[in-house]
Recover the amino acids of this structure.
């Protein structure tokens, strides 16, 4: 038995609470990990509150990511004592996840903890930060350079947004942060944003084409915001779309694609192949300022995670939240 959050559905009633969890809930992976740190991502908020049907098996420990030390391993890639990180692969959705003291997963899903990070720092980055890095890598691969002009980051005060602002500014880009919380402007500027705009400028229905402004975009918001971001992306520019905090719809036109040759990259962290994950974690180790990472991180307990999950979905949580199980 170990302590963890357990999501249950009994007679159609959805619930999440901190409990003493039976080992049987962990399933049949070949590596057992002592979880030192986990986090709250947007999807964890959905899993804990039941607001969206992301949990596919009950009972289940939520938590799409964790970092910790291998307790036991039947997998040749890992031995007892190895420090590891997990992001995605359906963990916290179809398989029990990181919001507990123990996790058991397939060895091929794990990435070695980069030497540059403690397990706490790895989870301060978490899936949100690793996804921000995947977005930046897509824009770089497209050929976007710091000299090309302003890069827009939407949902900037959130987890993906905060890490994207930090990364892009460290890499020399001129970052414009879009937020619904203008009171967080000093925070966003401390992470490296050159300027901050009100997300209302982007969140309503817009024109198929707007004045060209963005060399590139990291969007964690979707819906009209993504459509307006595409409409104002400069000729040949690129947009990396990873989220749906405003909505899953994409009420756009083809105009920016066929008249300005812009490219829209879809970013998925969950099933990303191992080589890409390892590249992203190596890049985070190189390009993320750990002092800024600390500034954007809040620490909570498993018990607090239940309430904070609801706040996260309401867009009230700033930056990243680490959970100590
Ligand atoms: P957070 O809740 O930390 O951040 C989301 C931010 O979006 C909020 O802080 C807020 O920023 C903004 N926002 C919230 N509601 C609205 C709204 N109605 N309209 C416009 N903006 C809004 O979540 P994460 O950063 O962890 O995740 C962001 C998104 O990325 C989520 O949709 C998540 O599911 C997705 N995601 C996708 C991944 C993938 O693999 N593709 C991996 C990780 C996350 P502000 O207050 O600054 O406006």
């Amino acid at each position: 038995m170990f302590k963890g959050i357990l999501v249950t559905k009994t007679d159609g009633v959805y619930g999440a609470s901190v409990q003493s969890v039976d080992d049987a809930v962990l399933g049949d992976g070949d590596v057992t990990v002592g979880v030192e740190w986990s986090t709250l991502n947007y999807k964890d908020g959905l899993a804990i509150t039941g607001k969206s049907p992301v949990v596919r098996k009950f009972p289940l420990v939520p938590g799409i990511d964790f970092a910790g030390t291998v307790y036991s391993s039947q997998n040749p890639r890992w031995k007892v004592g190895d420090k590891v990180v997990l992001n995605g692969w359906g963990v916290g959705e179809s398989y029990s996840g990181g919001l507990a003291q123990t996790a058991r997963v397939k060895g091929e899903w794990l990435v070695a903890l980069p030497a540059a990070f403690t397990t706490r720092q790895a989870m301060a980055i978490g899936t949100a930060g690793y996804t921000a890095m995947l977005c930046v890598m897509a824009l770089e691969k497209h050929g976007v350079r710091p000299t090309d002009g302003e890069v827009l980051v939407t949902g900037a005060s959130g987890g993906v947004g905060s890490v994207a602002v930090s990364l892009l500014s460290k890499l020399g880009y001129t970052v414009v942060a879009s937020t619904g919380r203008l009171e967080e402007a000093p925070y966003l500027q401390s992470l490296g944003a050159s300027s901050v705009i009100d997300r209302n400028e982007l969140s309503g229905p817009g024109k198929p084409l707007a004045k060209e402004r963005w060399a590139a975009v990291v969007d964690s918001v979707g819906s009209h915001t993504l459509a307006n971001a595409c409409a104002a992306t400069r000729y040949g520019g690129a947009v990396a779309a990873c989220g749906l905090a405003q909505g899953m719809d994409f009420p756009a036109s083809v105009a920016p694609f066929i008249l300005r040759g812009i490219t829209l990259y879809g970013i998925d962290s969950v099933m990303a192949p191992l080589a890409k994950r390892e590249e992203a974690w190596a890049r985070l180790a190189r390009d993320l300022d750990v002092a800024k990472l600390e500034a954007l991180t809040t620490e909570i307990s498993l018990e607090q995670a239940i309430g904070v999950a609801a706040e996260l979905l309401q867009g009230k949580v700033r930056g990243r939240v680490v959970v100590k199980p």
Observations:
- The mean pLDDT is 96.
